[in-house]
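Changelog-adjacent note: as of this version, every example in the card shows the full chain rather than a window. The one below runs 105 residues end to end.
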Amino acid sequence: MRAAARAQVLLERLRNEMTRLAAVRAVAQVAASRLDPGPGAALEPALPELTGFLRKANRPLRQAALAAIEARGPCAPRPARRPRAPLAPLGAVAGAGAGRAWGPS
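Full-length structure tokens:
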């Protein structure tokens, strides 16, 4: 069985409620294995399912999903964020209403 076919079977098992927890644990084992140089890449289609399980009420399922995501290894670095524009000087904002009291006149 090829890696893509194995990943597809695991994905089907993740979508079945009866086999979900066992499949998540299997995904964690595959992601943590060091036999294949890139096992995490074959499990990319499972990531949306795994992240969805983090919102479920089933605690063992949440824990197993988190372990599977962590076993996958570090994610790709995020692109650098552009710096935000500086805020307007406080004097310009305060000067617009200078001389007025804060409250009923």
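Structural remarks: Residues 3-71 form a domain with the Leucine-rich Repeat Variant fold (CATH 1.25.10).
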